[in-house]
Design brief:
Structural class of chain A: mainly alpha
Shape of chain A: elongated
Number of strands of chain A: 3
Order of helices and strands of chain A: HHHHEHHEEH
Radius of gyration of chain A: 23 Å
Low-confidence stretches of chain A: 1-15
Largest sheet of chain A: 3 strands, antiparallel
Number of helices of chain A: 7
Oligomer: homodimer
DNA sequence: TAAACATATGAACAATCATTCATATGTTTG
DNA sequence: CAAACATATGAATGATTGTTCATATGTTTA
């Protein structure tokens, strides 16, 4: 049949692949969601921020304490805390001259834990 | 007492903070572990790689299919697949001319799911 | 074995990013 | 209110990274 031959030409390989392409397109989340998701993981993708999160996992803390613990500049820590705060992973409150930072989401622990499990088992 | 006054000078704020600093240093994982962890999340921190993982969540697939689904260059996909493979998130096998890629770890789903939950609730 | 096909890869480039430095904002204390 | 303290922030810079382009590697088929 000529019609099927033409169809064969149009497809890269065969119909199985074509159907696969269609079904995946269905279940793929919206572009914006995927962007936000990648953006979130990007926040976890930095050693300094991971260390800050680990630190706050222990207790809420002011900026200068975190800087001292990580042996880094106050400025560097402040910049990273802002990123963590924008990602809603950390919250802050003022206490006198200090700004106290704390974890803002119970998912922080779960996500880090999952990551740990993965890297530990190879 | 003179001794305590001197101690007060040495401390940034007070002893409570000092003790905090010590205890956190105790529970902080080794530098190398923290680096690997950040490196892992960095892999999730890119839209293209997130899309690839979502795609493979549906079914194992060859490079050209993924490229077609994501409407991207074969080269770009291949480069990203290499990164995913290095992170042990994806595995590959040859099938004739094609290389079939598939998810290599059950944590991929869990990690993405956790991320999704976080961005969905604010 | 030559041509076609599927994938991998290195170099180059633009874009993104973490840190530093200098300085601004905001709070307390004397 | 001025000085000291804690934090935030903008600009600059070096480093990292995703994509493209050209090409190499490896497999099948005619």
């Amino acid at each position: 049949m000529k019609k099927d031959e033409k169809l064969e030409e149009l497809c890269d390989v065969n119909d199985v692949h074509r159907h696969l392409v269609d079904s995946v397109s269905m279940d793929m989340p919206e572009e914006e969601i995927l962007y936000d998701l990648a953006e979130l993981f990007k926040v976890f993708g930095d050693t300094t921020r991971i260390k800050i999160l680990y630190t706050l996992f222990e207790a809420e803390m002011c900026v200068c304490d975190i800087a001292e613990i990580l042996n880094m500049t106050q400025s560097a820590i402040s910049h990273q805390l802002k990123i963590l705060k924008n990602a809603k992973l950390v919250k802050s409150r003022r206490d006198g001259k200090q700004i106290i930072y704390a974890l803002d989401d119970e998912h922080v622990g779960s996500i880090i834990k999952m990551g740990m499990e993965h890297i530990e088992e190879r």
